[in-house]
Amino acid sequence: MPRATSETAAILLFADLTEAAVQPCPGVLDALRAQLSDLDHRAAELAAARAVLRDTIAGAETRTASAPAPASAPE
Questions:
Q1: Own/partner pairs for 11-19, CB < 8 Å, 24+ apart?
Q2: Measured between alpha carbons, how far is 35 from 12 in angstroms, rounded to an integer?
Q3: Whole-number Å distance between alpha carbons of 28 and 45
Q4: 17-56, pLDDT tens digit by residue?
Q5: Residue 63 C-beta-side C-alpha neighbours within 13 Å
Q6: What pTM value is reported for the model?
Q7: Are 38 and 29 in contact (CB under 8 A)?
Q8: For position 1, what pLDDT does the model report?
Q9: In angstroms, rounded to a whole number, what is the distance separating the alpha carbons of residues 14 and 24?
Q10: So where are the chain's domains?
Q11: For every residue of the chain, which 3-state class applies, written as one string?
């Protein structure tokens, strides 16, 4: 299955000259739906990863803000 936009565009349509209309090639819509599904899945994974990172950063910032200041070394 092609991934690049130009490759996908190259196979998307063919001209039906008898009706002067543009129709999708057989299987193209299914391939596009599959790509969309893959992208939706990847977007969900990224959203979950972003949430974990945000929580980790927030937790680290909270711990840093509430941590006691380091004691000065004796002179």
A1: none
A2: 13
A3: 26
A4: 556 677 888 999 999 999 999 999 999 999 999 999 999 9
A5: 6
A6: 0.54
A7: no
A8: 47
A9: 6
A10: 7-66
A11: CCCCHHHHHHHHEEEECCCCEEEECCCHHHHHHHHHHHHHHHHHHHHHHHHHHHHHHHHHHHHHHHCCCCCCCCC
Interior/surface letters 40-56, b for 16+ CB within 10 angstroms, e for the rest: eeeeeeeeeeeeeeeee
- Joined tokens for residue 45: 């994974």
- The residue ranking higher by pLDDT, 34 or 3, is 34
Kindly state the tokens that stand for 3. 């991934």
